[in-house]
Design goal:
Layout: H1 9-12, E1 16-23, H2 55-64, H3 87-93, E2 111-113, E3 117-124, E4 130-134, H4 136-145, E5 161-162, H5 166-169, E6 174-177, E7 180-184, H6 191-198, H7 207-215, E8 216-218, H8 221-230, E9 233-240, E10 247-257, E11 263-270, H9 275-278, E12 284-286, E13 297-302
Parallel strand pairs: 4-8, 5-7
Antiparallel strand pairs: 1-11, 1-13, 2-11, 3-4, 3-11, 6-7, 9-10, 12-13
């Protein structure tokens, strides 16, 4: 079946923008309980092990900014205490079940929210304090979704090599990331790629904009998968007994978090013309669990 005969080809012709998400604090979007050493793991791609942020999580957070509020800032609710969306919110995100009248049919949202994929992952570095790791797979996915097909070919370093700035995170042609030593690959990351990636956070005061050129390293896909699986933060928590104010018996658990300074991107596609122009994306969002303890705060940029 050709694209002209495939109804899904119509979606490809709609406008797509990229939402960049840069973690200011550790992030926990949980995958539920686990039988392993990590009691509360994060959501990952099954085949690569890369952490992801589901599109439903992004959509839900942005939809909350399109709820009806009074002049005093209080939520407008129906007779059963359920929050109501604005007219723009209904158009962008669809009507909630309790907003659909008896004689009305459901209304789908006007924007498709793709899951946020990994673009750069921070690890410890022997020099320069830390480095961001990326790989050909992560970059080519972004290239496809961002429609940046004019960018040049990427180097493909073998497992024991990486492309990095020797003046910042290397020494004598080598770099130490976590507990692994990498030799400098013969070809550097092409400047056109660095120019494009730098604008993922265009604010000149942002950590990414200031440091990405000097702290970004290109490793192979296996290496990025290894670090993404093993170098996330693991925080120990304990439940407090409300009566005694001390740790509850057998209530210790381990929670996995994506580290701060991780860069994700998510493709947003409008299903009705003009929808993305109506979408208000705040410069900072909170996604995932444990907001009251400072987790999940992100800097955003829609390009």
């Amino acid at each position: 079946m050709s694209d002209d005969q495939n109804p899904k080809s119509e979606i490809r012709n709609h406008k797509t923008q990229i939402l960049y998400l840069f973690t200011r604090t550790p992030l926990h979007v949980g995958a539920g309980s686990s039988v392993g050493a990590i009691d509360q793991p994060i959501i990952r791609e099954r085949h690569t092990g890369f952490p992801v942020i589901p599109g439903t999580a992004i959509k839900g957070v942005l939809a909350d900014d399109h709820l009806q509020r009074t002049t005093a800032g209080q939520l407008v609710k129906d007779e059963k205490g359920r929050a109501l969306r604005t007219d723009t919110g209904k158009q962008l995100f669809g009507k909630q079940d309790h907003e659909i009248g008896k004689d009305e049919s459901g209304q789908a949202g006007a924007v498709s929210f793709g899951e946020a994929r990994l673009l750069a992952f921070p690890v410890r570095s022997g020099r320069g304090c830390f480095a961001w790791l990326t790989s050909p797979l992560a970059l080519r996915r972004w290239q496809r979704d961002a429609n940046r097909h004019s960018l040049p070919d990427l180097p493909s370093p073998p497992r024991e090599e990486a492309c990095f700035d020797t003046a910042t995170i290397g020494h004598n042609g080598q770099a130490l990331f976590e507990d692994y030593v990498f030799r400098q690959h013969a070809a550097p990351i092409p400047p056109d790629w660095l120019n494009a990636l730098e604008m993922a956070q265009p604010d000149t005061e942002s950590v990414w904009r200031k440091l990405c050129r000097s702290h970004l390293a290109l490793v192979n896909d296996e290496t990025l998968s290894l670090f993404a699986r093993t170098a996330c933060e693991v925080a120990q928590h304990v439940r407090i007994d409300d009566e005694t104010g001390t740790a509850a018996d057998k209530a210790l658990f381990n929670q996995e978090n994506v580290p701060a300074e991780t860069l994700f991107y998510a493709p947003l596609t409008e299903l009705r013309d003009g929808a993305l122009a109506q979408l208000a994306v705040p410069s900072a969002l909170q996604v995932g669990g444990d907001a009251t303890t400072g987790l999940g705060f992100l800097s955003t940029h829609l390009a």
